[in-house]
Write a structure and sequence with these properties.
Layout (H helix, E strand, L loop, with lengths): L18 E5 L5 E5 L2 E5 L21 E3 L5 H4 L2 H8 L2 E5 H8 L6 E4 L4 E4 L2 E7 L16 E7 L2 E5 L19 E5 L8 H11 L3 E5 L11 H10 L3 E3 L6 E3 L1
Parallel strand pairs: 3-4, 4-5, 5-6, 10-11, 11-12, 12-13
Antiparallel strand pairs: 1-2, 1-14, 2-3, 7-8, 8-9, 9-10
Length: 243
Amino acid sequence: MQIKSHPYRGRFRGGFNIMKVTYYGQSCLELEINGVKILFDPFITHNPLAKNVDVNSLKPDFILVSHGHGDHIADLFTIQKNSGAKVVCIAEIADWLSKKDVTNVHGMNIGGAFNFEFGRVKMVNAVHSSTLPDGTPGGNPAGFVVYAAGKKIYFAGDTALTYDMKLLEDENLDWAILPIGDNYTMGIDDAIKATGFFNCKNVIGVHYDSFPVIKIDKNEAMDKFIKAGLVLKLPAVGETLSL
């Protein structure tokens, strides 16, 4: 497959630090950093809550994949083919993708970090499972810390509350993107506990409402976060927030 050259190259060096995030449902969101678009865990066409999102309109420069479950990679092939985006993921998923002719892939592993054109990405631990849609083992599930535009953003991926999050305590995170739907991941109460491990008061909640078993009471969630002295953002599908 021929890989296109990306028009963002060099743009991030201009000294303007603009960061925003657009939510596409479940754990899929796009982080835009000085014009560079980074899409996390693409799952849109099979999510009824994202029925108004045109998957073919998404043209990210990077796709970051936390693990192999279908509700995190279902639209990866379509979006990657349309955009030529570099896929960043655990080494086992990188190998699986390469066998399916996705050649613009950067494999990583837990604890490793790499400097990309837009900034630095570190892969961190997540406590979950990871099997690819065809049954292939997907290696370890993961989260990411993105260091760019003067900010530090933690995308936790699908995870239970884990004391490994304490390792991020000194990072001075600006935002944490946390699953709050319970059943498969942390719920609201554990997500609040997690913020105490890594000392971040600004949270974007993800991985909720897409299926009956992860339906949440949004008002209850907001009240609990407010009482804990935290800011919780629950953007609508398609909504953009400035970070």
